[in-house]
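Lay summary. Proteins are chains of building blocks that fold into shapes, and those shapes determine what they do. In this project we predict the shape from the chain. Here is one chain we studied, written as its sequence of building blocks.
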Amino acid sequence: MNAPRRADATENRARILQAAREVIANASEVRLNEIAKRAGVGQGTLYRHFPTREALLAEVYRKDVDDLVAAAPALLAEHAPLPALAGWLDRVAEYAKVKRGVFAAVEVGVWQDLSAHSLGPIGEALTTLLDAGKAEGVIRPDVDARDVILLIGYLTRLEPAEWDARAHHLLRVILDGLRGSAGLAPAGGSGLAAGRGAEPDLGVAR
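And here is the predicted shape, written in a compact code that computers can read:
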């Protein structure tokens, strides 16, 4: 009996987090009843997993950070360094959109704490990608993770209505600026590199 119940609880939690992520990314206001409805659970179930709205939003953000960090070595295992970085920047665009929604919906102290704890892991993941590219000459040698994070931070200047049209384009421009001499020729791959070849403030400006 206990094992099926634990499995159901784990599944419910995952559905709640996914539903919350979708609402945060696409709605102007985060409503818990809408999240529960989208997840297919009752509000009582939602509150058993996440007693407060901020607890739920913080967990959505932490999971996005974990997924973004884990994506770096996974992409490098499957792709050459430049397409791997391009694919990772694709994920940054989605992460930044969710972060923007979370930080707009929680208290200042909460988002400051979340941001402080995510900066290091994201910077390390980005460093891994840049170092792999530098070793093959496809990333210019004079850039580091801090440079890229500062550039990515300009996504915060986008208005919500222009996010979908401009976020990936701006990251493509950044990628082009990072190319080393060996990465100037068109590279294959997916994401931002298709057809062409983290964290001081990726959220909402306060």
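What the prediction tells us: The chain has a mean pLDDT of 85.
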